[in-house]
Amino acid sequence: MASRRQFFKDALAATAAVSLAAADGSGSAREKEKPALFQFSLPRVMGTRLEFLAVGTPDAIVRPVWDAFYAELMELDAMLNRFNGYGEVARLNAAPSQEDVPVSEPLAALLRLAFSYRERTGGLFDVAGGKPVTLSADNRLTLGGATLDFGGFAKGYALRLWRDRLRAAGIGCAFTDFGGSSILATGHHPYGDCWKVGVTNPYGGGPVDEWSLRDTSLSTSGNAPSYHGHIVHPRTGLPAEGRRLVSVCAPDPLDAEVLSTALMLAAPSEENALASAFPEAVFRRYSL
Amino acid sequence: MKEEHVDLGLRRFIKQLGYAAGGAAFLAGTAPWLTSCTPEKLEELGREKARLALIGTGGRGQYHIHNLREIPHAELVALCDIYPKNLDDAHALCPTARTCSDYRELLDAPDIDGVIIATPLGSHAQITLDALAAGKHVFCEKAMALKMEECKAVYDAYAAQDKALYYCMQRMYDEKYIQAMKMIHDGAIGEIVGMRCHWFRNADWRRPVPSPDLERLINWRLYREHSGGLMTELGSHQLEVCNWALGRTPVEISGMGDIVYWKDGREVYDSVAVTYRYAGGVKIVYESLISNKFNGMEEQILGKEGTMDLARGVYYLEEDNLLSGMRRLYDQVRDGIFASIPTAGPSWRPEVKGQYVPHPVIAGPTSINNGESMVASDHDGSLEILSAFCQSCITGEKAKDVVEEAYSSTLLCLLGNQACEEGRSLVFPEAYKIPYMKF
Ligand SMILES: NC(=O)c1ccc[n+]([C@@H]2O[C@H](COP(=O)([O-])OP(=O)(O)OC[C@H]3O[C@@H](n4cnc5c(N)ncnc54)[C@H](O)[C@@H]3O)[C@@H](O)[C@H]2O)c1
Predict the structure, then answer these.
(1) Which domains does chain B have, with CATH numbers?
(2) pTM for the whole thing?
């Protein structure tokens, strides 16, 4: 428990260090012309970094929303992180029991949600890596030797929570970038009718595409020179090969997140089924 | 869900790498010397062969004999050396060739199209000038010459006639260097802000000598009448790639040279640290030492966005686009600008110093020169440049810019030595500037 408290303390210190909140409400003439800017950045969370920019909402309104989300995000990361040694998933994975074991209500809820995506993607997206993992009605989990991996889920889920918080607080103009692979575009750029986002080529060279996003999200999956073969097919156990990317745009960040992984693995014959399961999503493939 | 088709794919990527449709422009831009040895031109040669003589049949000369065997359009007809043992060894490798001890005998021979010079540096200029004057194509080992005035004389002679002249700067024909340069010129590592090159070995450079009167012939590298030491033997290759990357020649040179460890009567430094400054302030920090090999051989081109490690054929990125993407967005909004944010891609992962991830310049296995051999390293472009020379012997086509590159880098080596000697910083002398050079 001590180590976990220490973890939160460290994480908070990190936030404080990189907080770049620009709007202080001091109301000088110059600031009245320009919209208020609130920027926050977490250098290390869920294996990557999270950056957020709100435009035109006073600091006093954005900050408490951010703070509440931050606490929620830290809980989530601690629970789902496979490598921290103390979280629920890390502990389950460390001793993958053949027997059924009780899991917490929050994790059970996430597992049910993840399993529903397993259904909707025809098994292409699976936090249990294709193993017959089951969860009983009274939250008992049977791993049967499998391990859980919420990569490709957690960031999308976090962004969904974040989207709901922004909405509830009436923050209508913001851009959230979760490691480049998960982007939430709230409203539009203050000087344009959307947020324009370039898809970068991890193998070098300029952007390969541009998306115009407005009240929607974008998720990108694929191989990169430093990070290749990490998307593994649950049925075959084989990694997605090739210099490829898939970007998925969907109103729900979790849909986009799950689909970008599923599409990296989908055979051409499986695309139609995915398309009818997610009618609101749009995707583009890139061969690099 | 629907798929939107995007016209990208392999073709574009291949084009990025400089093959296919964009190939011609790429060659003309990044490696113009390759235009004289394209696969199409090679095919036009048919069954013709370049008839060659090798002058200097020591370590490097014998290595060239091995390479010539791999080149179908080459025929070695004569061997020349003033040291009988090396001549005999070479003859054993190529018994059909005739032999002699005075290269001038070869120059009038009508059955010789070109000569390969692999003698000590001190004799490069004279043999090259004589061979060009005799109407032979010439392939000479680097460096160009031992003295600046010799370099200029060879350059002028070359420019005034129509025979091909090559210097064995094999990096210019090494695929991984070419690809890397293409990437640098395309901006993959951003603006070049500095360069670091070094060559470290732990070996004395000395060879056993059967009798004392042969000391200077065999250990020519150690004596100033024959050799420029570390700068010309090793630095010449590395300074060339710096100029190739930046497309310019430095304006100012300073350095220090010493004999730190091998105090065995040699005259050339065993330790040098030389700095070259280009106009605008970009510097090459050059270092070479032959009593410690920990750092090996490296050529690093440092860019604002990344680092190209030429010798290993990999590059490293400073920071991902991500943070700069968000910073850009912040600045844009603050300044009232609406533009694209280059940030979407596979998830960003932390890259901190010491954990930079190497990205290969070319796919598949690459051979890497660890810098230890005094003779050669495999697949380093030496075979390709020799093959290109043989092709020129048949077609008569000069290789663009090879002499100019060799001239520039050799001058830098010699100026580096001079700066060490005089203990002051030098500016690139006006009298030795050639039209090719940009400063
Ligand atoms: N491009 C490269 O990577 C590379 C690698 C090694 C050597 N080299 C260069 O190759 C050249 C030879 O180096 P090496 O290591 O083979 O030296 P070496 O001493 O092994 O061979 C030189 C040979 O030239 C002969 N020679 C000397 N003067 C001569 C003359 N007037 N006529 C005919 N023969 C003569 C010597 O007897 C000797 O056999 C040098 O310029 C060196 O810098 C280049």
Answers:
(1) 4-172+376-403 (3.40.50.720), 186-375+407-432 (3.30.360.10)
(2) 0.65
